[in-house]
Write a structure and sequence with these properties.
single chain; 160 residues; alpha+beta; Aspartate Aminotransferase, domain 1; 3 helices
Length: 160
């Protein structure tokens, strides 16, 4: 599965809007080259809503533990309900604490945020219910597709 595969999948969902910041646009440089998915049937980014799926292609400020600055590495992040988060990761998103971004490739709980083709808690946004997969492959493609569909359906239910 590639970033383009993910983007093709989400663009096929009803009401999906993919925001893809580029150089020279109004978005911060840290967001350039990444993709943010919203339920926005009107075609405008919702003002008070976080994306429910993101595709990131590089490390961000404070988010280095997935080693995304290495060529060919990228990560898809999906917001899931608390019970699903616990089922997938073994962690409660309300109480999870993975320490600072400088704590190395694995946290004190043994999570290796650089592991590929594995559903992991998001290194920064686990408390918000985000799971992450670095370089999705055969082990995670079907599950990730399901999670993306579920996240989009939840976002549509909450959409005004």
């Amino acid at each position: 599965m590639t970033p383009d595969d993910i983007l093709e999948l989400v663009r096929g969902l009803p009401g999906a809007l993919v925001l893809s910041p580029e150089p020279g646009g109004p978005h911060p440089e840290a967001a350039w080259g990444d993709h943010f998915v919203y339920h926005a049937p009107g075609g405008e980014v919702p003002q008070r809503t976080q994306p429910h799926v993101t595709v990131v292609t590089k490390n961000g400020p404070g988010d280095e533990r997935s080693n995304l600055d290495v060529d060919g590495r990228w990560r898809v992040n999906v917001r899931v309900p608390r019970d699903r988060f616990a089922e997938l990761t073994g962690h409660d998103p309300r109480t999870v604490d993975f320490g600072g971004a400088d704590s190395g490739g694995a946290d004190s709980g043994g999570v290796d945020f650089a592991a590929v083709d594995t559903v992991l808690p998001h290194p920064l946004y686990a408390r918000a219910g985000f799971v992450a997969v670095v370089n999705p492959g055969p082990r995670t493609t079907d599950l990730l597709t399901t999670l993306i569909h579920e996240a989009h359906a939840r976002a549509a239910e909450k959409s005004p």
